[in-house]
Design goal:
heterodimer, A: about 450 residues, alpha/beta, seven-stranded mixed sheet, five-stranded parallel sheet, about 40% helix, B: about 290 residues, ABC transporter involved in vitamin B12 uptake, BtuC, two-stranded antiparallel sheet, globular
């Protein structure tokens, strides 16, 4: 029987399916030899021609977090197009809708999520992050019996789900909680010393944070465990946001130079200014920053001063076959400056959910708790290897395991990646953890051997 | 000694940033009794226009600065024709224009988000190099911003005190109806002040973005700090605003070093409360007596 080439929205398949997969470039070999092949196989040659499945995302597409919010939207858009090209979910295409959460207060987040349910009847909310308590949209998901996948990176999610697993069965945090940044960083330093790549000049560590749950939780985790790794916290400074003038803070650092400066504040423009102002009169301190240096704007602002700076992420696209193929597809579609690391979050989240839904026999509309519980059960049981590494959820907490701090098997946890900017004109090098590292640690230029 | 030099250098940098942001806001409030809540967005627009003129149009930085000032002056005029003029004829002008300019600011901010994208961009109009005092390295850009703030203050002072336009502005600020009866074309004064304030905001935006980088929402913080400075100085007092801005910058830097950065904004707000209790009309403001 001849198939009609006219498809329901979104129409992404041009010509024959086989031709599209081979020539279209969307589903490359890397995609189909990876986990999406499972979804493709389950779809059993079905084309995404059935009734669309509404999915939603509420993210910060305006205001200060818009750089990430727009990438979250891109990430879900790309995932939906690819999943539809693979046959959707058992032949039903995904149809995404988006709501803006701007400054991401809990009230705004909840209203945006509820609008997705009321206006579009979404079967799942597939987010990046929203700064807030990290424990509000779960209420919308629970009340409506739908699946909610997010990358808020907050221990608040783990605690909420643990408090009442029977209510929050449908809420999943696709990455590890921010808490793990703390012990993960201390362990990373320990390994640098054990490998003889760097030696501390003293036991002092300066911790600089901004007033917010995320930055505070990471800073507190470092502070709590520093002693057990032989560190004394010589400065614990909370900065106001935005922070363009770092003079007084740098004066304190220069008065009592620490071996390590750990900055858990994350805005790239502020961190770029720190790097510039530090570089004019540096102390022999290893500098570790949070997240901000992953945004290309950080390197544009700091220029040479960025060389040598280390940063980490518990969720980001890996620099391996799967990750780099994703980066290529992403940048071809959204432009060379698009931030694929942020887009990778809802991208992986969408695939985890879609594959689980196909395994469970389909998705459920709001109120169809029975079907969505089956999807949630499949998600809980799944080990998904995506562009950000392995997603495996902790039982009763529905948050991803982190490797190597929480599990020591790289196939069972999401890699806590440590990257270093070694040449600001190029992308950063992934220096840890093994086996994902692609570059060796470089002694920062301001530290003399 | 180095610490003291660092505090003074940081304080002057912060003060200069607050001062350039405050001049336009203070001028509009002092002259028109109008709190322009779109000031932060216009300031940001100025930064972006300068960036686009240098990077995309290849203009010389001086021409780019002029282009930004011109565009933002036109935006000021647009605010006059689209919001201030219609609202002037209605009651409760001060409240209505306050709300209207919040909306205008939001529209400008979102247009910048659409036009320039959400990512932070470094401002290409910047002065390189640094001066070393003791062991403290002070970027020349910071010194440049302080210089610009002082030049703008002097220019606005000359305009207000030595020109017929300035006299008309001062007359309108003292009593709108009386000025109108004396033949001052009040509508034109409003248009002139809003255009001038727009141009000043553009220069402020370029200066601030040169050390804080360009983002569509970068105007929010300078707007808030400018408002605090205006309240402390006395709303509408341009010279007082510059002096207060530099004093507050020095206080903020000292607080950051002595008490910690987290206390600096709280200290500023505490100071505002104390000033409002002690001198409700601001440090440099004049008490107004209303006879009934």
């Amino acid at each position: 029987m001849k198939r009609s080439s006219k498809l329901t929205t979104p129409n992404v398949i041009a010509g024959s399916r086989r031709n599209f997969l081979i020539k279209g470039g969307l589903a490359t070999a890397a995609t189909l030899t990876g986990m999406p092949a499972m979804l493709f196989a389950m779809n059993n040659e079905a084309r995404a021609e059935g009734d669309p499945i509404p999915v939603g995302q509420c993210g910060p597409t305006t205001d200060f977090a818009a750089p990430d919010g727009i990438e979250f939207k891109n990430g879900l858009t790309l995932a939906c197009e690819e999943i539809n090209a693979l046959g959707g979910i058992l032949g039903r295409p995904l149809e995404p809708s988006f709501e803006d959460t701007a400054q991401m207060g809990d009230a705004t987040n909840v209203q945006a999520a509820q609008r997705l349910v009321d206006r579009h009847g979404v079967h799942a909310i597939l987010n990046g992050y929203n700064i807030g308590s990290g424990a509000a949209i779960q209420e919308v998901a629970a009340d409506n019996g739908i699946i909610y996948v997010h990358y808020d990176t907050t221990i608040g999610h783990n605690n909420l789900v643990k408090s009442n697993p029977d209510r929050y069965w449908g809420s999943f945090q696709g990455d590890p909680a921010e808490y793990w940044y703390g012990p993960g960083f201390l362990k990373f330093l320990q390994q640098l010393e054990e490998n003889g790549e760097w030696k501390r000049k003293n036991n002092k560590m300066a911790v600089i944070l901004s007033a917010g749950v995320y930055a505070s939780n990471i800073a507190n985790a470092v502070k709590e465990q520093a002693k057990s790794y032989g560190w004394d916290i010589s400065l614990f400074e909370t900065v106001s946001v935005p922070a363009s003038e770092w003079g007084p803070t740098l004066a304190k650092i220069r008065q009592d130079p620490p071996a390590v400066i750990c900055i858990t504040h994350f805005l790239p423009a502020d961190l770029g200014q720190f790097a510039l102002q530090f570089a004019s009169n540096p102390t022999p301190s290893l500098i570790y920053m949070q997240y901000g240096p992953s945004i290309p704007a950080f390197r544009d602002i700091a220029k040479q001063a960025a060389n040598g700076i280390i940063y980490a992420t518990v969720v980001g696209a890996l620099q391996d076959d799967i990750g780099t193929a994703f980066e290529k597809r992403y940048k071809e579609k959204f432009g060379p400056n698009a931030g694929h690391n942020s887009g990778a979050q809802p991208y992986d989240g969408a695939y985890v959910w879609a594959t689980a839904a196909a395994l469970a026999g389909g998705t459920g509309e709001p109120g169809n708790n029975d079907q969505n519980r089956k999807v949630a059960a499949r998600m809980s049981a799944m080990i998904w290897r995506g562009v950000t590494g392995t997603t495996r959820f902790m039982p009763l907490e529905n948050a991803a395991y982190t490797y190597p701090t929480q599990v020591n098997d790289s196939s069972l946890g999401m890699p806590h990646q440590f990257l270093q900017i070694q040449d600001y004109t190029k992308g950063p090098g992934l220096i840890a953890p093994a086996p994902y590292g692609t570059t060796k640690f470089m002694m920062p230029p301001w530290i003399k051997a | 000694m180095d610490v003291l030099i660092q505090i003074v250098a940081s304080g002057l940098t912060l003060g200069a940033m607050y001062a350039v942001a405050t001049i336009g806001l203070s001028l509009v409030y002092g002259s028109l009794n109008m709190l322009n809540m779109a000031h932060g967005a216009i300031l940001t627009l100025g930064g972006y226009i300068c960036y686009a003129a240098i990077v995309h149009a290849g203009l010389h930085p001086a021409l780019a600065l002029l282009a930004a000032a011109l565009v933002c002056a036109l935006v000021g005029l647009l605010i006059y024709f689209s919001a201030a003029l219609p609202l002037l004829r209605a009651e409760n002008f001060e409240t209505n224009i306050f709300i209207a300019t919040i909306g205008i600011g939001s529209v400008i901010e979102n247009l910048m988000l659409k036009g320039f994208g959400p990512y932070p961009i470094p401002q290409p109009l910047a002065v390189g190099g640094q001066v070393v005092i003791g062991n403290v390295h002070v970027p020349l850009q910071n010194v440049f911003i302080l210089g610009v703030a002082i030049v703008l203050m002097v220019a606005v002072a000359i305009l207000l005190q030595r020109t017929s336009t300035g006299r008309a502005i001062r007359a309108t600020s003292m009593n709108r109806e009386a000025a109108q009866l004396m033949g001052v074309r009040v509508g034109r004064v409003y248009a002139q002040v809003l255009a001038l304030s727009g141009a000043l905001a553009a220069v402020s935006g370029i200066m601030i973005s040169s050390i804080a980088t360009l983002t569509p929402v970068m105007g929010g913080d300078p707007m808030l700090k400018a408002f605090i400075v205006c309240v402390v100085a006395g709303l509408g007092n341009v010279y007082g605003a510059v002096i207060a801005a530099i004093a507050l910058g020095l206080l903020e830097a000292a607080t950051q070093y002595v008490l910690g950065v987290r206390w600096s904004f709280a200290t500023l707000l505490l100071l505002v409360i104390l000033v409002l209790i002690w001198r409700p009309y601001g440090l440099f403001g004049k008490q107004q007596v209303v006879r009934l």
